[in-house]
Design a protein that fits this description.
Belongs to the SEC23/SEC24 family. SEC24 subfamily. Pfam families: Gelsolin, Sec23_BS, Sec23_helical, Sec23_trunk, zf-Sec23_Sec24. One of its GO terms (biological process) is intracellular protein transport. GO terms for molecular function: SNARE binding; zinc ion binding. It is a single chain. The longest helix is centred in the C-terminal third of the chain and has 24 residues. Helix 5 packs parallel to helix 11 and helix 14 packs across helix 23. By secondary structure, this protein is of the alpha+beta class. It has 23 helices and 33 strands.
Length: 1059
């Protein structure tokens, strides 16, 4: 890929056809709308015409007070999130009859206010509204309500017809209410009378039966009324006093969730907020008819071309990285942090038909041992003799969403609604609010994440000690690459930091054409090596002394590691008996389990599990035989993985080779044992030593959960149907994880068991039972709640792009194991197209969309991440774009990555750093600003006079512009500043600028320590080395693949088909 223009490389022309699949077949979905509904609220817009007056149809919201408004506004019926078993308030009588042609609405009587209302402040009336006057007679205590003729009100034109009768307003248009006790904004009233109140209804607040027997049904003491922002959509609850109206200090924004009026929770929980879930459809009043609850891109003509196009600079890009969703915890403050559990949408559909219109994956991404967010902690709870409190039926652990009743003697499970007895040791009375008096001292009731100390009944056997077993290839290629020396030095340096001291166990096996065992008994002065050459009948000599306690035999272990590189420095054996060595390791570890670290440098060639070279036949690619190259050739490895899992052994594979080693087969060991793949192509210790040393040291010293199992429980009517990641599925919903750490995440898909969900809230609980390195058996529990909605638009508004892409990635990679790469890329594109087409249909009736491409704010980066996924190493191109081992290793790695690391790998950071390096006294704040000033991944972002840093979480690429100041190059590279950068190793030089750059790189590495960022040097125009950066510029059209603009145009054309 040479360059003719000195400023930028030459690119092939744009592809004439869609490289990721043909457009989908037309899919016409019927879309209905309803005629305009005469509303009752004033419009805030000036009318353009004066049509004849329309008869006002009095109607009431489903709250306890009936309000009437001018035409053009249709209120939403409020609903609350409460326990499904709560009794609803009694229905009150309705008054009047609907106007002809209008829909029937339920009417409620108007209860009398208990205190005098406060009038609004004097201010000029809003355009199109009558001036404010005295309150209506119905609002003044003692004034008898009666029907009177309607006053003359200027007619306001109706908005475009809605799709359905009700609609949830967009999140950005209504300010959130700060607390339950704050009154809502009064609406100006244009009717002169209210319906007569039912004498059976007492004055003041209507009496509502308690939600659960045995609990007081009263509100908490309310703070003084607060001043509210002006909003034409806020409803006033009965009994609240109107507050002064002021101009809103908040700017409206697109998307987002609006938190409605808060209701008290008298069950030992903080106040919860109700949600309104209305039928899908666009806004229906005059104001909403002009507002747009979505983002859009204008597709117009490009200057100099007749073809439609889009401005590249206007395209949304995630230059702030992954922003963890906050609405999840804002709706339910007691939820666990999104770092542990992320839903693809935090609005759960209530029906199968709604799921069928969602088109995106519906599920969750779980990282049970994620690093604790700053400022938080996971409390450890020990119930001791009383035992862990769990539901008798569904075995849910006690959590913040359970409710207490019968004066604290019983608690109701939030998952299955069963009423359980409270053990005597756990009993506490309830206060006047229905909350346990010891609520603040109970982390399991106040926090969404907690860790229980498990009693003995949770143990099949005594907790295992942390065990590390090393299986090391010592063939000639391993010796010459320097791998053995680096591995031995790193293990020795980490011996004092291995978790679990003084219980930690350790052992070693080396192999080439034979298998070498090592006796490291503490009574020996140096280890004894025993060689087994019979590969067909493997046996273990001295089974009791091959695994030793590290604290007792540390001296012998250190002696062995010091001598290991020299022991095989003259070895010329090219064979690899990996399969027999693996069986020997299983025999040694089967009594205890533990972590098996495999260092493989050669294609297995002897004994069971030997593999052959495959993938060299180019004619196979693009045919039905291609997927077989990405699956294990020999079933031996999958069977061995099952056996390792059975004995609680997790395998991590370190693969080093410049030749084919069949990672598709060997990586199966890590996939089914909860392990990880580390791939070092063409490893040489001179250049790759630091990367291997850092990643191996982190693997050895990070906190690990041993012999773990994980289960995810969810509410009635829903269940998880498929799981994706590195684990072994022991039963339909139990994941076996011999070893777990903070760098592992698991994805799963959700489905409905019932046609229609009747609950308004669903709950999820992740439970990880594991053995800690200290020897305790523990259960880490994460609990979250999510609302059930009937509105497809709300599902889109509450979508989480990171979780959606994480599930997309795992599904696409799994699809490559049985289909061609092109099929997997097409599947990703088509699901994005279907989702955006459905979203367009939601708004096409209400709004004039024209040639615009519309999308929800929550999914504005979805097309770009979809393109990045299709251009990733695991899915991109064909035979020539990535080797089989490289593609398989990337797939295994992406299957286990948490959301944040995955998104950074798909769309890396590009920073310009020469300006920072030239500052004479750069501060830490300057370094932070430089790290946040991310650029779009396109050649247009690269200035030939600049120095740029590319960071994808796994490597650094330093790009030197052709016209970069020689002073910078000389300070960073020394005497090699003019040499071919492919032969220059980056290191710290004796200059202030070099030290400043190394400090910046170290700061980035510390912010994400999972992998070591190896630094590659690239100069503009040097081929083929510059291709390692050019191929990573997602926004550009490279190698026959679409650029960002082309990708958007392809999606837009397909969305418009039958939209």
């Amino acid at each position: 890929m040479g360059t003719e223009n000195p400023g930028r490389p030459a690119y092939p022309g744009r592809p004439a056809t869609t490289p990721f699949g043909a457009p989908p077949p037309p899919n016409v979905r019927p879309f209905s709308s309803t005629p305009p509904i005469p509303g009752s609220g004033p419009s805030t817009f000036r009318p353009t015409t004066a049509p004849p007056s329309q008869a006002n149809t009095p109607f009431a919201s489903s709250g306890p007070m009936a309000e009437t408004e001018a035409p053009g506004f249709q209120p939403r019926p409020p609903s609350t999130f409460s326990n499904p078993s709560a009794a609803p308030p009694p229905a009150l009588p309705s008054y009047g009859s609907p106007a002809p042609g209008a829909r029937n609405f339920q009417r409620f009587s108007t209860p009398q206010f208990t205190q005098a209302p406060q009038g609004p402040p004097a201010r000029p009336p809003t355009m199109g509204q009558a001036p404010f006057g005295t309150p209506p007679a119905a609002l003044v205590p003692g004034a008898p309500p009666a029907f009177r003729p309607t006053a003359n009100v200027p007619a306001v034109p109706m908005g475009l017809p809605p799709q359905r009768a009700t609609y949830a307003p967009p999140g950005g248009s209504v300010p959130q209410l700060p607390s339950e006790s704050v009154p809502s904004v009064p609406r100006p009233n244009f009717q002169q009378s209210y319906p007569a109140a039912d004498p059976s209804v007492p004055t003041g607040r209507p009496t509502v039966p308690p939600l659960f027997p045995g609990y007081p049904n009263q509100r908490p003491h309310a703070p003084p009324p607060a001043t509210l922002s002006q909003s034409p959509f806020a409803a006033r609850p009965a009994g609240d006093v109107p507050a002064p109206v002021v101009a809103s200090p908040f700017q409206t924004h697109q998307g987002g969730y609006v938190q409605p009026h808060t209701v008290p929770a008298p069950f030992g929980m903080p106040p919860r907020d109700p949600m309104q879930h209305s039928a899908s459809g666009p806004p229906s009043n005059a104001m909403y008819g002009l507002m747009e609850d979505f983002n859009s891109l204008s597709i117009g003509s490009v200057p100099g071309s007749l073809d439609p196009g889009v401005d590249s600079k206007a395209l949304p890009r995630p230059l702030d990285g992954d922003v963890e969703p906050t609405s999840f915890r804002e709706m339910f403050p007691l939820n666990c942090h999104s770092r542990y559990l992320r839903l693809t949408t935090s609005a759960i559909p209530n029906s199968q038909s709604l799921i069928s219109r969602w088109h995106l994956p519906l599920g969750a991404v779980v990282c049970p041992l994620a690093e604790v967010p700053e400022g938080e902690e996971v409390s450890i709870v020990n119930f001791a003799s009383s035992g862990i409190i769990r539901c008798r039926r569904c075995r849910t652990y006690i959590n913040p969403y359970v409710t207490f009743t019968d004066a604290g003697r019983k608690w109701r499970c939030n998952i299955c609604s069963l009423l359980n007895d409270v053990p005597g040791d756990y009993y506490a009375p309830l206060d006047a609010m229905g909350k346990r008096v010891d609520f603040d001292q109970r982390p399991e009731l106040a926090k969404g994440s907690v860790e229980f100390v498990a009693p003995t009944e949770y143990m099949v056997r005594p907790p295992m000690p942390p065990l590390y077993f090393f299986l090391i290839d010592v063939s000639v290629s391993a010796v010459r690459s320097g791998m053995i020396e680096v591995v031995a030095q790193t293990i020795r340096s980490c011996l004092d930091d291995l978790p679990g001291f003084p219980r930690t166990q350790i052992g070693f096996i080396t192999y080439d054409s034979t298998i070498h065992f090592y006796n490291m008994k503490s009574s020996l002065t140096q280890p004894q090596m025993m060689v087994v050459s019979d590969l067909d009948d493997i046996f273990v000599p001295l089974p009791d002394d091959l695994l030793v306690n590290l604290s007792e035999s540390k001296t012998v272990v250190e002696t062995f590691l010091d001598s290991l590189p020299s022991m095989f420095q003259d070895n010329v054996n090219v064979e690899s008996a990996f399969g027999p060595a693996l069986k020997a390791a299983l025999m040694v570890m089967s009594q205890l389990g533990g972590k098996l670290l495999i260092f493989q440098n050669t294609l297995p060639s002897l004994g069971v599990g030997r593999l052959k070279l495959r993938g060299d036949d180019v004619r196979v690619y693009g045919t039905d035989k291609e997927p077989a190259l990405r699956t294990p050739e020999d079933p031996f490895y999958k069977q061995m993985a099952a056996d390792l899992t059975k004995y609680q052994i997790g395998a991590n594979v370190y693969a080093f080779s410049d030749r084919y080693t069949d990672i598709a087969s060997i990586g199966t060991l890590a996939k089914y044992t909860g392990g990880q793949i580390y791939y070092y192509p063409a490893f040489q210790s001179a250049s790759h030593k630091e990367k291997l040393r850092h990643e191996l040291a982190r693997d050895l010293t990070r906190e690990t959960a041993w012999e773990a199992v994980m289960r995810i429980r969810c509410g009635k009517g829903i269940r998880f149907t498929s799981y994706h990641g590195n684990f072994m599925l022991r039963s339909t919903d139990l994941l076996a994880l011999p070893s777990v750490d903070c760098d592992k995440a698991y994805a799963m898909q959700l489905s409905l068991e019932e046609t229609l969900l009747t609950t308004q809230t669903v709950y999820f609980q992740v439970a990880l039972l594991y053995t800690a390195s200290c020897g305790e058996r523990r259960i880490r529990v994460h609990t979250a709640a999510a609302p059930v909605v009937t509105d497809l638009g709300e599902m889109y508004r509450q979508a989480d792009t990171g979780a959606v892409i994480s599930l997309f990635t795992r599904l696409a990679i799994e699809k490559t194991l049985s289909h061609k790469l092109e099929d997997a890329r097409t599947a990703v594109q088509q699901r994005i197209v279907k989702a955006l087409r459905e979203y367009r249909n939601l708004h096409s009736v209400q709004h004039r969309l024209g040639g615009r491409m519309i999308y929800p704010e929550s999914l504005k980066y979805l097309p770009l991440y979809g393109l990045a996924l299709c251009k990733s190493t695991a899915l991109r191109g064909s035979y020539a774009d990535a080797s089989l081992d490289e593609r398989s290793a990337a797939g295994f790695t992406m299957m286990a990555l948490p959301v944040k690391k995955l998104l950074k790998l798909l769309y890396p950071n590009l920073l310009r750093i020469d300006e920072y390096l030239l500052k004479p006294s750069a501060s830490a704040q300057d370094a932070e600003s430089t790290m946040k000033a991310r650029l779009p991944l396109t050649m247009d972002s690269l200035d030939s006079r600049g120095l740029y840093l590319f960071d994808d979480g796994f490597r650094f690429i330093l790009w030197f512009g052709r016209m970069l100041s020689p002073e910078i190059s000389q300070n960073l590279l020394g005497h090699d500043f003019a040499a071919d950068l492919s032969r220059v190793a980056f290191s710290e030089r004796d200059s202030e600028m070099s030290r400043k750059l190394c400090a910046l790189l170290q700061k980035i590495r510390e912010s994400d320590p999972s992998y070591y960022h190896l630094c590659h040097l690239v100069r503009q125009g040097e081929q083929p080395r510059e291709a390692i950066l050019i191929m990573s510029l997602v926004d550009d059209q490279i190698g026959g693949t679409s650029g960002y603009v082309d990708w958007i145009m392809q999606i837009h054309r397909q969305v418009q088909q039958n939209a």
